[in-house]
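User: Could you check the structure of this?
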Amino acid sequence: VQLQASGGGSVQAGGSLKLTCKPSGIIWSTFRFSRVGWYRQAPGKQRELVADITSGGGINYQDSVKGRFTISRDNAKRMVYLQLNNLEDEDTAIYYCNIDSASGNYWGKGTQVTVSS
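Assistant: Sure, the predicted structure tokens are below.
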């Protein structure tokens, strides 16, 4: 299974981006019943959970992004999204997509988000 994250870029504070994660090599049923999430790692810091969504639709957000970021999934297309609004300098990081399934735990290479004020 390979995960391709895209949609990162450089924006000014207050701007928006939409990240997309497209897995390949994963069958529909495995994806459908997996937990999917977005993590990020800023320079000099540990990787941290940004948001995740279970197979049942339960969503969890890191406190610092609540009200600004929205995670979603499209099971039919096997895609995962993260809408980032009202970006802040502290959101600058590499964002990684993760799929936690019965067949394994998978990571993408990440996409860079840079926010400047």
